[in-house]
Amino acid sequence: MQITLKINGKPHKVEVEADTPLLWVIRDQLGLTGTKFGCGIAQCGACTVHIDGQATRSCVTAAADAAGMDIVTIEGLSGQIADEVQKAWIALDVPQCGYCQSGQIMSAVALLTSTPRPGDGEIDAAMSGNICRCATYVRIRQAIKDAAAKL
Amino acid sequence: MDRRPAASTIERRTLLKGLGAASAGLIVGVYIAPARAERPGQAQSAQSDVMAAAGSQAGLFQPNAFVRIAPDSTVTVLIKHIEFGQGPYTGLATLVAEELDADWSQMRATSAPADVELYKNLAFGMQGTGGSTAMANSYEQMRKAGAAARALLIAAAAKSWSVPAGEISIEKGVLRHAGSGKSGTFGDFAEAAAKQPAPAEVMLKKPENFRLIGTQLTRLDTASKSSGKATYTIDVRKPDMLTVLIKHPPLFGATVKSFDDAAARKVKGLVDVKAIPQGVAVYAENFWAAKTARDALSITWDESKAETRSTKEILAALRSASAGAKTAVSRGAMPAGDGIKTVEAEYVFPYLAHAPMEPLDCVIEADENACTLWFGSQMQTIDQAAVAQILGLRPENVSIITLLAGGSFGRRATPSADIASEAAQAAKAFGKKRPLKILWTREDDITGGRYRPLYVHKIKGAVDGTGSIVGWSETIAGQSIVAGTPMAAMMKDGIDPTMVEGAEDLPYAIPHLKVDVHTVDVGVPVLWWRSVGHSATGFSTETFIDELLALAGKDPVQGRLDLLAEHPRHRAVLQEVARMAGWGDKVPEGRARGVAVHKSFNTYVAQIAEISVGSENAPRVHKVWCAVDCGLAVNPDIVRAQMEGGIGFGLGAALYSAITLDKGRVQQTNFDAFRGLRINEMPQIEVSVIRSAEAPSGVGEPGVPPIGPAVANAWAKLTGKRVRQLPFVGDAV
Predict the structure, then answer these.
(1) CATH label, B18-225, candidates 3.40.50.720, 3.30.365.10, 3.40.640.10, 3.90.226.10
(2) With an 8 Å Cβ cutoff, are B230 and A98 in contact?
């Protein structure tokens, strides 16, 4: 089936199967590889994108269901919150292997968009769906707080 | 006499150590292999767009195999070790920058190609990364590479300015001659420097003159990893490329008997299906088509030679192993008699998957004459040889572009060249000239074997009437990681050192020490997992010593210190961590603290964990204090990051992780059942890096071993229950 996906502000006409996950359309068909594959069952958060502003696991979201909605990937992040989050990430050297960090940043930006001054509990709750096997969690927490302080 | 070795004697590294003038550093003979002419394909490193200088060869100054200086003054360091988070890109570039007197902002890093002569790990004799050796084996080599480049730039400037070389200084990437007021950049002299003869010897800086080593430099790979721009294997795209998924046998040791691909071939985007030695390969235009087609395969497996036991049966075999024990260490005899109290404990450690965030993957492009692979190769020399053999090529015609990898924890360092072999077999079976991306799913990863071995440790300890620990007798049973592999040369007197490391070298002054080993054959493939044998021996030794000290009525910190008189570096980290935590101070109600100290990979780490009883009747870890002595810390912030990450990785495994088998079938398939640590389970962590002038040692692994026992020792104090079996949660075995 042919659908139109609005990704990072631009419409893309793509041919998909009814069950094709959004993740693989983004990666394989559109070549936006910042969004990562980690588990395929919404357990790790590496594939997190924003759909109408909500942090969403693109590995279990059928592309067809996201047609017409506002999809943002790491490549399309913009605005003050995203800038401060990415600056904080760099200032603290958060990433190690780095593979999960696109998803971490997408979740962090969504958190700060809805909760500008999150406490530890709110950070843990919002970020607990994003696994980092390098366990960079101490710095993720601190980077979110540092970014929040700038907003 | 010209002391420069002939250009062909790559091995010769004449080390003419001698002290220079008081203000100068160490004069060393320097021969760093020259850069090779680029082979086709090698300039296409997928990272060049992000971290390395522009790939143009024009005007590039390549003083040796490790350093490239471009006309724009950027300095690109070719890194022989894979970067999967532990920081070699930054650390090794720092060494070059230090001796080159470069400014950090002009430094770049890219991966070195597979070329054993130029880029072997000096600790292994082949190209590869592991055992936390990247910094240790590169420390002098990379400094010499930087110093040699510096000498050539100075020689070129001296000639151009007609001044003595000895009057030229370099600071933050700028060459200056004070007398004439002349100055210039690296780029200004790159072309002329390339025409200067290589120096026979160079002066290395004294540590007190370091300006970059030991400081907090930002990582070279952080920006690209914080924007989604860093390129991993899974991100490589080539014209005409297919995605390949492989259906592996459901049992270890099973093989394909026959398969029916009629339904799979109806999937849109499916290109071909082939049997290969590893299973059945599905070739498709994209991932989803490949996965859909793979799910539609109907395969009959030959399970006649497969491992069909369940975990409890394998465990029973390990527990009952009695014949053919080999002794790793033996001194004194187990005391007996009046006043001797003894304790016996049996520890069980489960199989563990590495589960790096990026599942195994590999891109391959092959024809009759040559082959190029793009992937996170951790053992380039082994991968190159394996691919060459499968494709009937010479190893030098197999190019490997080592990419950033999304974690490894040991998983990408397979003596059997797992993923590279699979890629080569898939390319061979396909037979057509299209690039292939072989990709594992998470289910392939968790069920795919190569686990940290299941181990049983039995220890008997003795304390005499005066409260002295006088005997320690241990038996370790498990599978060997290296026996029967191309790395079997690591075996010592029939013992796989990875089974006994951390136990045979127990640092405590105990008159009787004996460690025996039973190597048991099991059909479950095993592999090194971050900190290898120490992942188990760190736990059994540090919880058992805690138990013996309790029996002797000793304080866990002071009791250890008393037994470590001969081990000042153990003592120093233990004293530092006790100071940080305020050991002995009142602990909040409902909480307890435990301590552990363990040396691995020549690095000493002590940790104190403060816990309470959390959910699932398991510890809730609130805070961890950590002191580390890794010799000279080239980048203290990366050392801290590795301790933080090692603690989180080790804690997740100790609390939650296990792979179990039911009649040979792995029962966990994804992150829902194979559980690691999440952010809400991460303690606060405080790290102290001991200042040291000792040679640098590794930090990727040594943060892992102490956390499990520190938490278990706190748990024993809080609940009275000694932990003998991991993980804490569930009844895995």
Answers:
(1) 3.30.365.10
(2) yes
B32 pLDDT more than 80: no
- Which is it for strands B436-439 and B242-247: parallel, antiparallel or unpaired? parallel
Tokens of B237: 């795209």
What are the chain B neighbours of A132 within 8 Å (beta carbons)? 357, 648, 679
CA distances to A97, B360, B649 from B356, in Å: 9, 8, 11
A58 inside 8 A of chain B by CB: no
Residue with tokens 């143009």: B56
* Spatial CA neighbour of B606 closest among B538, B506, B559, B545: B538
Q: Is the pLDDT assigned to residue B547 strictly greater than 90?
A: yes
pLDDT tens-digit series, residues A4-50: 999 999 999 999 999 999 999 999 999 999 999 999 999 999 999 99
Q: Which of B287, B292, B280 is nearest to B241 (CA)?
A: B287
Contact in structure between B714 and B623 (CB atoms under 8 Å): no
Q: In what order do the strands lie in the sheet with B182-185?
A: B168-171, B174-177, B182-185
Handedness of CA A128, A134, A136, A137 (dihedral sign): positive
**pLDDT per residue as tens digits for the range B324-339:** 899 999 999 999 888 9
pLDDT for residue B20 is more than 90: no
Closest CA to B365 of B232, B241, B281, B246: B241
- CB-closest option in A39, A101, A125 to B670: A39
In contact, B375 and B495? CB cutoff 8 Å: no
- Signed CA dihedral, B165, B168, B173, B174: sign only: negative
Q: pLDDT tier at B6 (50, 70, 90 boundaries)?
A: very low
B519 vs B501: CA distance, rounded Å: 14
Mean pLDDT for the stretch of residues B610-618: 95
Show the tokens assigned to B595.
């301590």
Q: With CB atoms and an 8 Å threshold, state whether A131 touches B671.
A: yes
Distance CA B124, CA B138 (A): 12
- Inter-CA distances, B536 with B533, B541, B726, Å: 6, 9, 10
Q: What is the mean pLDDT of chain A?
A: 98
For B233-304+360-439, CATH number out of 3.30.365.10, 2.30.30.140, 3.40.50.1240, 3.20.20.70 equals 3.30.365.10
User: Where exactly are the structural domains of chain B?
Assistant: 18-225, 233-304+360-439, 311-352+450-719
Q: Output the domain CATH number for residue A87.
A: 1.10.150.120
User: Which among B603, B538, B593, B540 is positioned nearest to B572, based on CA atoms?
Assistant: B603
Enumerate the residues of chain B whose CB falls inside 8 A of the CB of residue A27: 287
Query: CA B125, B401, A136, B635 torsion: positive or negative?
Result: positive
**How much is the pLDDT for B688?**
98
The β-bridge relationship of strands B107-111 and B75-79 is parallel
ipTM of the complex: 0.98
Write the pLDDT tens digit of every residue in B389-419. 999 999 999 999 999 999 999 999 999 999 9
Q: Do A43 and B358 touch (CB under 8 A)?
A: no
Q: How far out from the chain centre does Cα B171 lie?
A: 34
Among the partner-chain residues B357, B443, B645, the one whose CB lies closest to the CB of A38 is: B357
Show the domain range for A140.
80-150
Question: What's the pLDDT at B682?
Answer: 98
